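User: Study the chain.
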Amino acid sequence: MDAPAPSSHSPDSYDVMAAPALRMAWLLRAVAWCAVIASVLGIVIVPGMHGTYSSAVVERFDSASLIFSYGMGVLLLLAAVLGAWDFSRLREVHILARIATMTSGIVVVGLFLPACATKLPPLGSALLVVSATTISVVGAIVGSRQAHTRAAAIALGIFAGSALVHLLAWHVANLGATRASTTLWDFSRGISTAAVLLDAAGQMVVAAWLGTRIHPKLGTWGGQIASAIALALAFGIVWGASRGGSETASPWQAMLHASLADAMVSPPPWGLGAISTFLGVAALMLAGAISVQPYAVGAVTAVLTLILVAHGGFDAPLRALAVTVASIWLMVTSIDQRAMWRSITKPTA
């Protein structure tokens, strides 16, 4: 768990107060928890409830989803501002990288705010993806230099590539629709297939990181059990959704079927539609498992959680903001030497 608030009588008080990643671990964990709950409600549960459950139940879940979504947005903006302040003072990061990060972050926030009230035009969505990808690539390069942030940096870089490939597939599909070209449509599906494979690779990196977490009583079994439970839960959700289209399906199966149908990748990949659906759910389940890991540096678990919440969907404003916050704090945490030593000597920080 996160370290308690330091006092003047604590020998670790200076280390915690001087280290941004340790000082803000409580906020980053709160952002991560809120992001997981908001994503599960907004993607897996609420979309399929309409027409399946009573209006009273739907209204309650709609309200909860709205509260957590707005809470996620507010907390992400707060974490972005605080992270940008600490990041701007990092002299270890090249000036060009800092300029690219701050510029891209401003663009993402500038597009996120109007997106809260209206849908972005295609050009705005494309600019959102490019900006979020730029800051992700910079974050991946900087974060890969230190051992305690390397896994998160690798996953971030892979998901950034997936987001760009998704964007390319979407534009090729639109071009094919405009020209009524089946060749372009088929080509866009091939590009989408590559994006799904990149998503799978990114999640494998995160699952491997989770599987190596050490529990004081269970050893490495602790992380492996958490990873197995997350993937089993994702499989159960997708299995239930696959049964939801029949007349004998139970309400929860029909709900999952409708929700995950809305969450399918467009254009659909070749032969990997079910895998793509599974990966979308597995990302959220793994994010939940990582967000509650008590024996890891809070900033690292929060960054990994936000990366998984976003995975390859940088065209969604909340996801783009989530990966922007993750990238900024990944760089701050990688440069933070106290966080590095705390991850080695005191893994409960």
Remarks:
- The radius of gyration is 20 Å.
- Residues 17-345 form one domain.
